[in-house]
Amino acid sequence: xxxxxxxxxxxxxxxxxxxxxxxxxxxxxxxxxxxxxxxxxxxxxxxxxxxxxxxxxxxxxxxxxxxxxxxxxxxxxxxxxxxxxxxxxxxxxxxxxxxxxxxxxxxxxxxxxxxxxxxxxxxxxxxxxxxxxxxxxxxxxxxxxxxxxxxxxxxxxxxxxxxxxxxxxxxxxxxxxxxxxxxxxxxxxxxxxxxxxxxxxxxxxxxxxxxxxxxxxxxxxxxxxxxxxxxxxxxxxxxxx
Length: 241
Description:
Elements: H1 2-27, H2 89-92, E1 107-110, H3 111-119, E2 128-129, H4 131-136, E3 147-150, E4 162-165, E5 167-168, H5 170-178, E6 182-185, H6 190-197, H7 215-221, H8 232-240
Parallel strand pairs: 1-3, 2-4, 3-5, 4-6
């Protein structure tokens, strides 16, 4: 008896709810257009302003509680890891290693990759190959301090080239000269390298003059084994030509 009453009441309740929803949707149905798009009722409410009297529900302390750092104007935790003025944990732990802000990391270039670009015709091996041609061909991107030629894949290198790079390994120099080519290491500072790679950035003004290597790097660019531009070997070749 009780189950039958409950089932009949639930059916009436379900019918009433379904009837109400169906009538409400039918009465409030609006064709969907760009000018009729809007939020549902109750989706957004106006911001409740605080500190407008005790009768507003957010008066007096305005929801900030009693005293403390977070209740003050401009207070709160300054940053992640703040420990109330004590030395933060990330400052208390020991540090290992260092970052050399004077480092000049070179963009590596392997001989095997250079040989592939030459075979594909993306670099002309009959003309002088500078870092400008290397950058324009897409062989090296993001050249920040210069290009260093490495001897990786030297057994597959068969091209006779004349190339200028910032630095070169001894194996790369040997592989290039074995094919009858020439290699010269030249120095460019940040401004000079920018003028070499992106001359359009200096349109309407004179290009900056090339800077000489600083004293710490002068030893590299005067070394015959490194084929530095200021070495006696390179200077004698320049006089002969």
